[in-house]
From TrEMBL:
Its cofactor is FAD. Residues 1-18 form the signal peptide. The keyword Aminoacyl-tRNA synthetase does not apply. PROSITE patterns: FAD_PCMH. Residues 116-300 form the FAD-binding PCMH-type domain. Belongs to the oxygen-dependent FAD-linked oxidoreductase family. This is FAD binding domain-containing protein.
Length: 579
């Protein structure tokens, strides 16, 4: 009897290890591809397969190389360099795997050897759809964890995965303008108007610069090196032009995608409409690898740019002023105002820049601000500064104010930390005590707040005409609020856990409580990586439909990303299936 029990235990044990469908194949297991098989993949991608080590490996034994390490240190905070390196992502904490005591930080002692962490083992430096197809088929055939990396900017660590094969798309830079785009499958008289097709690796500044040269503009985000085609637009994509023309994903007309089978398909209003629905807001790294996307372009237009600074002598006066400021936001936003603000409670200071596209009428904008500015200006203990300037074009807002450097300018990156966020509705801001409730939450957190005024206007209106996976909370929102917390490279696991707990159990719950747990939601691309109930937060009532589409296009879960659709069926690293 005892022997029988033992035998069945042992049998059970060996079964768990032999079944490839439960866990992905790991190095040193018999299922891991042979050298010959890797070489074969390398041939099929024209020699673009590389073995990958974390970028800071050259700064540690046994691979210490002073010259190489100096070069790494010089580029450490350069987002352009990080985008092109298979052994890096932008937020260095995602390169480490603290749960497995593996990291490779520049700053730690050279005699501590580097762990691979969450850095992939191999990368296909993709140059074409074909390369992506070969990589996808290889990962599927050998049951290997797959990571899709474009810029590597993802704040939730979705562009890297331990013991994985990476597909690096950041080298695919083609941009093609079209006068009248006819989606595949549409009647040729059914042109959608001017558009641009952008390949997987195009960065936002590259897109803006190319569009400006054609006197066109398009809806995209505020960063030099975030990608236009990857996680950004697939997660919805907010923009300072959103209030004017909608979310980036609202302006997507067609995607070309490599599916989990390795097939190359079109997703638009005529072909694979369920995939088209999911790719507009369902999140990157989940439904396939996008090779290129075609988005609308718009003619250039003049802009009024406005700037409002508020400072106060004490914190109670400051928060009252910030409450009044939030009460005024719906009026500014209804008139087309969109942009960003920063609240710095430690300095009792806030600064906001809003643009009003397609007008030169500064007097109109000044009138909108007047009630707020004059009320604040006559409040004792408050200093207010206000200015409005007409600019000749949208592109000049980007080239002079938001992204004032040429293509090749990096974003600041290389930091260690995580964030939390929440979308807040117009209904809240126009309600009698809504702004005060919101500000009370900010007050209780006493941390820096980044406000994004990127919804309302066309984002709200498009809810009537566009059916996509985008979080429905966006259609009711005016602002997207983000806060973050950093830790040092020497932080122990316990110290890191303390930061996660603060974001997950204090900051985000305080923001959620303002409108209620079941109202509104959060923007999946700028959110807590440990978001509780992420399905409802990121997609609301769209989640069940997204989950069904995921099962249809990727039944085996080849594409799994942290807090992505279907990720709840897998463990934290996406290595083993839980159900
Ligand atoms: C400085 C900065 C500014 C930002 N500004 C904005 C902003 O204005 N508006 C906004 O909405 N967001 C903004 N973001 C957030 C941004 O949208 C996310 O970081 C997003 O994940 C970046 O997408 P990526 O493709 O560049 O990054 P990556 O980290 O490379 O990829 C993100 C996710 O998409 C997947 N993915 C990448 N490429 C593909 C592909 N071709 N096919 C399928 N999946 C793919 C990855 O696997 C990963 O899951 C900003 C971020 C930063 C760091
Ligand atoms: C792939 O082939 C190229 C060109 O022959 C070679 O330089 C590279 O080292 C190979 N990659 C791997 C992982 O062997
Ligand atoms: C973690 O790794 C470091 C460096 O390899 C080692 O010195 C340390 O003992 C490890 N800690 C634990 C808890 O395993
Ligand atoms: C700008 O406004 C004018 C006048 O209302 C309108 O005709 C034009 O279409 C607008 N331009 C854009 C790009 O929306
Ligand atoms: C505030 O009031 C003073 C005094 O009336 C005036 O000079 C100043 O221009 C006002 N500031 C703003 C921003 O309106
Ligand atoms: C607001 O403050 C910023 C940063 O200090 C400054 O650059 C800007 O000129 C100020 N705006 C006004 C209208 O004074
Ligand atoms: C990178 O930036 C961080 C701040 O985000 C800074 O603390 C660090 O010193 C910088 N590292 C290098 C190598 O420049
Ligand atoms: C991290 O620890 C190392 C070794 O103890 C030390 O040299 C380094 O200065 C520390 N770095 C930081 C940022 O605290």
């Amino acid at each position: 009897m005892k022997q029988l029990l033992l035998a069945s235990l042992l049998f059970g044990y060996s079964l768990a290890h032999a079944t490839p469908s439960i866990c992905r194949c790991r190095p040193h297991e018999p299922c891991w591809p042979s050298h010959q098989e890797w070489n074969h993949l390398n041939d099929s991608v024209h020699g673009n397969l590389v073995a990958v080590r974390p970028v800071a490996a050259a700064c540690h034994e046994p691979d210490l190389n002073t010259a190489e390490c100096d070069a790494v240190a010089a580029s450490w905070n350069n987002s352009i360099w990080r985008a092109t390196q298979p052994g890096a992502v932008q937020w260095v904490n995602w390169e480490a795997w603290p749960e497995h005591n593996q990291s490779c930080y520049l700053e730690t002692s050279p005699d501590i050897p580097c762990g691979q962490g969450r850095i992939p083992l191999y990368s296909v430096l993709a140059k074409s759809a074909r390369h992506i197809q070969h990589a996808v088929r290889f990962a599927k055939e050998h049951n290997i964890r797959l990571a899709i990396k474009n810029s590597g900017h993802d704040f939730l660590g979705r562009s890297t995965a331990p013991e994985s094969l990476q597909i690096l798309t950041s080298g695919m830079k083609d941009i093609q303008f079209i006068d009248n785009f006819v989606p595949a499958g549409a009647n040729k008289h059914k042109g959608e108007g001017p558009a641009v097709t952008i390949e997987a690796g195009v960065a936002l500044k590259e897109l803006y610069t190319a569009a400006a040269a054609k006197q066109r503009t398009c809806v995209a985000g505020s960063s030099y090196t975030v990608g236009a085609t990857g996680g950004y637009i697939q997660g919805g994509g907010h923009s300072p032009l959103g209030t004017w023309k909608g979310m980036a994903s609202d302006n997507a007309l067609e995607f070309q995608v490599v599916t989990a089978n390795g097939d190359l398909v079109i997703a638009n209003a005529y072909h694979n409409t369920d995939l088209f629905w999911a790719l507009r807001g369902g999140g990157g790294g989940t439904f396939g690898v996008v090779v290129h996307v075609t988005i609308r372009t718009f003619p250039e237009a003049p802009v009024v740019y406005s700037n409002l600074n508020i400072s106060a002598v004490d914190s109670s006066i400051f928060w009252d002023a910030i409450t009044q400021f939030h009460s005024s936001l719906p009026t500014l936003n209804d008139a087309g105002g969109s942009g960003y603000y920063f609240i710095m409670p430690q300095y009792q200071f806030s600064v906001m820049g809003l643009m009003f596209p397609n007008t030169s009428d500064t007097a109109m904008v000044d009138r909108l601000y007047h009630p707020l500015v004059s009320a604040l200006n006559s409040t004792s203990g408050v200093t207010v500064e206000y200015a409005s300037i007409p600019l000749p074009s949208i592109s000049s807002v980007f080239s002079k104010i938001l992204l004032p450097g040429p293509v090749g300018t990096p974003d600041d990156t290389g930091a260690v930390g995580i964030m939390g966020s929440r979308l807040f509705s117009r209904d809240l801001l126009v309600s009698k005590d809504g702004p005060a409730k919101l500000v009370n939450a900010f007050k209780s957190l006493s941390t820096e707040i980044i406000g994004h005024v990127v919804a309302g206007g066309a984002v709200a209106a498009n809810g009537q005409s566009i059916d996509s996976a985008l979080n429905p909370a966006w259609r009711r929102a005016v602002i997207h609020i983000v806060l973050g917390e950093r830790w040092g490279v020497n932080a122990t696991l316990a110290e890191q856990e303390a930061v996660k707990n603060k974001i997950t159990n204090v900051y985000v719950p305080a923001l959620r409580a303002v409108e209620g747990e079941h109202e509104m939601g959060a923007y999946l691309n700028e959110a807590n990586p440990y978001e509780v109930g992420f399905q409802a937060s990121f997609w609301g009532e769209n989640y069940p439909r997204l989950y069904r589409i995921k099962q249809k296009w990727d039944p085996t879960g080849l594409f799994i990303s942290r807090k992505g659709v279907g990720s709840e069926d897998w463990d934290d690293a996406g290595m083993c299936r839980l159900k």
